[in-house]
Amino acid sequence: MGWNKVAIVGAGMIKFGELFEKSAEDMMGEVFLNAVKSVDKGFDPKDIKAAWLGCSRPNLFGYVTVGGAFLSGNIGLTGIPVTRVENGCPTGSDAFRNACLGVASGVYDVALVMGMEKMRDKSTTEGLLARAVEGHPIINRGETAAVTFSLIATRHMHEFGTSPEQMAMVSVKNRKNACLDPYAHYQSEIKVEDVLKSPMVAYPLHLFDCCPQTDGAAAAIICSADIAKKYTDKPVYVAGFGLGTDYIYFSEKRHFLGFDATVMAAQQAYKMAGIGPKQIDLAEVHDCFSITEIVDYEDLGFCEKGQGGKFVESGAADRNGELPVNASGGLISKGHPLGATGVAQMAELYWHLRGEAGERQVEIKNGYGLQHNVGGLGIANSVVTILTNRSN
Amino acid sequence: MSVGILGYGVYLPLYRVKKEEIGKAWDTGGRGELVVTGPDEDVITMATEASVNALKQAGISGDQVDAIYLASNSTPYLESGSTGVIADVLHCGQQLEVAEFSHTTAAAIGAWKAATDAVASGRKKNILVIASDSRPAGGGSEMELTFGAGAVALVIGDGQPLVEVEASYSHNTGFMDRWRSPEDSNVRDYDPRFSREYGFVRHVQAATKGLMAQTGKKTTDFDYVVLQQPDDRITREATKGTGITPEQMQPGNLFSKVGDTGAASALLGLASTLDKAKAGQKILMVAYGSGAAEAMSLVVKQSSPGSTPTVDAYLSRGEYIDYAHLVRQNGLLEKAGEVAESILPVSSPLHWRINREMRGIIGKKCNECGYVHFPLSSHKICVRCGHTEFEEVKLARKGIIHTYSLNYYMPQPFESPLPIVIAELEDGNRYVALGTEMKVDGIKIDMPVELVLRKMVVERGITAYGHKFRPIRAQASS
Fold it and tell me: Is the ipTM here above 0.90?
């Protein structure tokens, strides 16, 4: 039914946070070793024929360009082909997509996907707020990430009556989920009042409506589906994926009620996987801000357009709800080390689909998990990937 | 057909400061108030809005303007003209003559006379004369308690003018009362008790007397008298024994509401008078600055059509700020912390490429599907249908808010909270811009807004300009 040409056979991650004592190289090395160790039947790194590195903003740790050798040279794999991917917030998941295409082509049978971002070597002010002077010097001036998403929040509230309380419920749900996730940056609960009383960052988003600035890394080992059993009896297959690109200028967007890039990516992924939203057991979606998760439910087809606020309010997205969203705690709890996030979501789904997500394990009925990212310049890039524990 | 003012326009900022607020900082008092620029305004942004108003009232478009003569004592540069920015906003052609007049608060009169002569000789058809000032004053000084900000623009042309110049008279001795050298950050004076009498009073009286002798008129022949206004006491001193009455000066007497607007002072008083004057009435105007007095005898040929906001319309809404905000808005008190500097400086070819379309708000319309693209230099291929032929279009400048945000955590040099607005313009196009003059709890979806030229940033000493959305503030009566 699904594409299922590539399988994940190993995954590794480190706890996300403000990892002042770890360098970019330290993080890559650590998660690589974790991924290698995680392979059920053992894994020889020499099996890796190619790698893809997702790292979006190396200027935050002092580099402008890093290139692919930055990965292979640092994890003892010099010589292999490596591409460094940059695609905004979907950097990690697009690195994964490209790796899948590389393996499916038949040229490489085993590949490594590394997602990494080192954001905290710059102060939070300098690091994030420098975006206010990037892009078009007049049209984009003053736009930080929070602003671009808050423009959607304002209009969504106006057209659908979505409330600040409903947005806060996303943060409350995810922070509660993260208490069971040892990899999360924040592992404590908050209440709706805490969110609404926290300082305003970009109207109408408060501090706790926003994900923190975080360092982190995650890695996945993938291989051609027909050799997966060499590494594990429980591989997780890539059932489908999609990448959508939308208009870059905000004046060109067709609406401010969600992200067309997500809709396009999701349509491609569902079609490739041969399933619909109803088959999804769990989803790790992009919640850089609370409003983002609300429109994600709509754009991914979990509920009707405009009903996202009611969806989270009903408990449907809770860990024990009909469609658990962000059982990991999401970006709001884990943070959003840009390049790492997409790969971390793959790892999270990999663990749930194999029944090894520990205390935060959700019920798997159909055998499908969905990951999603959206963002980048103009919030115009989105990747959706559907993973399954069902072989064809 | 005759030469004169075909149309005039004014601009006054929103912000007001009570002089007693300023006085408090220096343990003294103060009466009256001043109009002061906001943090994203300067002489050029004020000049631009006054010009837009003047062209509208004169009924001419930017490409019909042959020359721009700007008079100011506080333009952004000591060398480098600033009229190019204004010309881009107004869509003037490139065969534009430009000149800047300065170094005296009477400079606008020289500009007006030069424009009149150029049109009368047939060399030019329509000349935009602009007076705009926002001069720096030292803390605790008399100038801090008197300097205001504003701009006036006149279209001088050959047609059916509102006002004609009947005669003019100059009295110029180079007297030194106020000055600002490149070493000074503020306008300075030495001995006001001496310079008020021997400077302003005697020069204004000499120019008035000279004009009366030349024309055979008496001051009582005039319906209105407009004087340069460095303060309001000094105009009473200057008019003693001249026959000029407070009633004649009343409509042009703006000092207590606006302050001393330098090169714009006399023309603002004139504009305020013209807002009320009727055909046939006569106006005596005397401008003064740094030992130069310029007197003019004017006749009103038609009353103002009321098609653009009057001085009173701009004065009708004001927002009061305290001394701390005044000092901050004047750039004298900067917030500490990280500064986000633009990646490419204003002198980069990037800015040269985008200036015309950003200042002129010029987009391009796909010849196939009609979709309008902005900015035009970023689109070679239609984003909607893939077609590659376009026609340039000028976007509308008014609209309503479609969505917005307020950015609270801004690094220097941004203001915080910073409004960002996406509006639906009157022509159906969507446009993204920062907001200005917006109160945090006053921004609403569907609120009417208009695009106005403002400073985006000053970096490496160079100012970048762009449009921002402003709530509609001053409307025309008709």
Answer: yes
